[in-house]
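[Q] Does anyone have a clean structure-token version of this?
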Amino acid sequence: MATLAQEKAGLPGSTVLDRIGNTPLVRLERLTAGMPGVQILGKAEWTNPGGSVKDRAASAIVLEALRREELCPGRRLLDATSGNTGIAYAMLGAALAFPVTLCMPSNVSPERKRILQAYGADIVWTDPAESSDGAIRKARELARDPQYFYADQYSNEANWRAHYHGTGVEILEQTHARVTHFVAGLGTSGTFMGVARRLKEANPAIQCISMQPDSPFHGLEGLKHMPTSIVPAIYDPALADRNLEVETEAAYAMARRLARTEGLLVGISAAAAVVAAQQIAEEESAQGREATIVTVLPDAADKYLSERFWEE
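[A] Here you go.
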């Protein structure tokens, strides 16, 4: 694998950075059976090298920090995460030779814990009852120590810019600018913020719909119930044309349905996004309108296979 220095020198060799982005769109055909002119397309973000959409934001944050020399020899990258961004940081830390410390709720899936261990990241476990907010508070506490570069994905503008310059452009190109609706879940909100801004610039008529859990007590790992959470500094609710709430059980049911009828094993937040996308599809079909609905499938199911809902 090429080093960062070699990359800067323009020498040949593919790194994990080269493989981030340009993910395919997958058509979810059976969900729109009987809805002529309506299609749901999912951005298959598990094809990123770290296995999730968070590779995009993490790489943008890391490269900007390296450019500004905020992440330099002798400093550790620090951030709060519910899992996928942490995995992306850990992967990049291993590839680019910088240490990583992550604050994370202790109830994340066993698969995520093993992946982070494999990459060699240091983990500070936080109270699961406090969800991602507890991890954020712990990271802010640790960030007082100058050994850390606090990446702060919830406030870092590089987060949403990664999607403005990457994901949003890809969606326009892959749909030949025919996308009519965009649906994405809210965690850090970076994916929705960046893509919505880019799509609205291209065509203000594109409907951008945000999605979040319907309750503060939910099982949609990686997503935030904004009314009861620490709201990310990068989040602007005015960008959404609508906001939909999804029940945890509906997401679990959709994950099983996608596996058994579409042949797609997706993560819980991806399934929740599809629940919201299908609601939009049904509304558009009922009105006799054609629609190209694009949603983001943040990751695959490999990090959730120990969850009991698969057996229900």
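[Q] Thanks! Anything notable?
[A] Residues 71 and 201 are 33 Å apart (CA to CA).
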